Hints:
Layout: E1 5-10, H1 21-39, E2 43-50, H2 55-63, H3 68-85, E3 92-95, H4 99-114, E4 118-128, E5 133-135, E6 141-144, E7 150-153, E8 161-170, H5 176-185, E9 190-191, H6 193-204, E10 210-211, E11 213-214, E12 222-223, E13 226-231, H7 233-238, H8 240-245, E14 257-261, H9 265-279, E15 287-290, E16 293-295, H10 310-317, H11 319-329, E17 336-338, H12 340-369, H13 382-403, H14 407-428, H15 430-436, H16 438-459, H17 464-473
Parallel strand pairs: 1-2, 1-14, 2-3, 9-15, 14-15, 16-17
Antiparallel strand pairs: 4-5, 4-8, 6-7, 8-10, 11-13, 12-13
Amino acid sequence: MSRPRFYITTAIAYPNGRPHMGHAYEAIATDVIARFKRLDDHDVRFLTGTDEHGLKIDQAARAANMAPKAYVDDMVAPFLELDHALGISFDRFIRTTDADHKALVQALWQRMAANDDLYLGRYEGWYSVRDEAYYDQSELVEATDASGAKLHLSPQGTPVEWTVEESWFFKLSAYQDRLLTLYDTQPEFIQPSSRFNEMRSFVAGGLSDLSVSRTSFSWGIPVPGDERHVMYVWLDALANYLTGAGGLDGEWWPADLHIVGKDVVRFHTVYWPAFLMSAGISLPKTVFGHGFLLNRGEKMSKSLGNVVDPAEMAIRFGVDRLRWFLCREVAFGEDGSYSDEAIVERTNADLANGIGNLAQRSLSMVAKNLGGVMPVRGDAGESEIRLKDAFLAGAEAYFAHMNALALHKALDSLMAMVAAANGYFAENAPWALAKTDTARMAEVLAATLDATRRIVMLAQPFMPESCARLLDQLGVAEDARDFKAFNTPVATGTELPAPAGVFPRITLDG
């Protein structure tokens, strides 16, 4: 029987600067979900990559006195390196300069044109180069500069400029009712619910036709049949999900889940489904808009000097500690904050004192007292029954939360299992039993090791490298680490490697 398929994507990053913690957070969260699905017997395709066209890149390349393609070739490298450093298990790293993507976007345009949804006109309006987005006058925010001059800003606080040029337009207004029907009949299309409410309200307020080409620069994908125009960068960028699926009618489409930042939810839940409806292509199942990651409660900004290099953070604290912290500390879908102190405090509490301590104490006792082999499992007494009940409830909650994309709640459930296992170990005091009842000691250690095995198996999506090392020490075969083997204990008598600490305590001083 074939495994169910699961196609998951990040938003693709705009490489006009180095990757920041927000990029790392989205990649890690998406990777956790992809790894969870693989362990849960799904055939997974995981797409990430870079969005390389548009005016912002064109301007940055000119400022660097480079050709745009040479510029993006240089700028993409740190994003790919960061993904590798963070253990991101993508199946394809797509670049919108890839040849198959260019061909696909032009084919998508032609399908939209064949549906009579594209027309030539003249665009006059406000455009943010930084957001690569058009804004209605009613959306702008007024501000003043240092000299007191009045400024217009986008809702994101970015500068906008009045733009006048010939443009191809997409009949977005014709899709208002279909979009509202989509939202009302498939509310799971936009998650979490706060994003759903924002987008439904935006569309219900009325939609204008969308400018989908530019003539003022040439760094983009040419419009088929009218190469004076290049396509609007968001039409180009959003289509990457189809390219990654194998084409307009690709075998992996529709996507099960797009993970995107809350600032680009509009593009993914209004423009993207309308483009797909126009082209006669099925829609993705869910778009999840996560929150912003804040440095000590403040949005990252070069002017504030609080932009952090995630690659340096991973080296300083360890990749798996960083992955664990971001998923444990930040409620997925909401804004979250991080600091060096919080990372040290959280990972020491959960990993060094929790999972690591549980594994190290039990494995060390087996090595010292039982010849380093898996002990005999005994009959369940009252304390074993309580432990079993706690683990049944914890595992059930873990899977429910993971499938609901509540990553932080899944880790709450996992830590409740850690507390139950540590409580069982303390209650039964195998170090005391070593002097009075070695048979019972062996039973307690067998139960503790099996509880540890189950915890570590569930922690794998979050900390793949560390969990692999722990499962090695617990004697778990490599082909017995997916969730189908969750209830299969390690055989009695299995030789266990010499225990070695996986989560030593860390300090701010290193």
